[in-house]
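Entry 14. Ran structure prediction on the chain below.
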Amino acid sequence: MTQQHPITPPPELVRHWSRFQGDTDPEALWFRIANEAAQWGADQQLKLDAEQIEKAYQAGADQELEACYEWLRAKYWICPDFTDELRAARRPKPPSLKEQALALVEQHEDGWRPSPKDWDTIRRALEALPDSIVVFPSQC
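Output, structure tokens:
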């Protein structure tokens, strides 16, 4: 069994490229397919490279931030709680799906009309809820 190259166009894309588009010469058709495939492969590699570069930048920034924490602790004997707060401020966690949906609902209450993307966020948050939630009426 031959190994497939990591950047191999999906069969649907190859079929799309091979559709007859006025190329009467088979050599011209193969040349066009080869050009399309080469461009597609280069684009895929650029995406992979950009992701790797972004990860490398993030790792470097995280290392620098950790070095700053250690320096603060050593130089000023700052308690870990302070540096934990600094870490949380400099590397905030993205809002959860629930938090995103609640923010959209609050915006809607202020008269804003959700977009299809916003409805999708709200739908995904609702779908993530378990089916067996029991709600008790609040006691007055």
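Residues 22 and 137 are 70 Å apart (CA to CA). Will compare against last week's run tomorrow.
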